[in-house]
Write a structure and sequence with these properties.
By secondary structure, this protein is mainly alpha-helical. Helices cover 62% and strands 0% of the residues.
């Protein structure tokens, strides 16, 4: 999975949500998490946010749509 492949840590709450979800809901959980985390960063006045999308643009488009509604 992602932590082993990319050698990263994932927040425990996020990991638990992913493990409990069926494959149909994993993408939605990721989108919601990205929106929440990005809002927190922007509210903390970070100068920029960078996303790695791994060639799948649909979820990122949804994140942007939700952030800028």
């Amino acid at each position: 999975m992602i932590p082993k492949t990319f050698h990263v840590d994932i927040p425990h709450d996020f990991y638990q949500k992913l493990m409990k979800a069926d494959s149909k809901h994993v993408e939605e959980i990721g989108i919601n998490w990205a929106v929440q985390q990005t809002r927190e960063l922007l509210n903390a006045n970070v100068p920029a946010v960078h996303f790695y999308i791994m060639q799948k643009t649909g979820p990122m488009q949804e994140v942007m749509k939700r952030l800028y509604q």
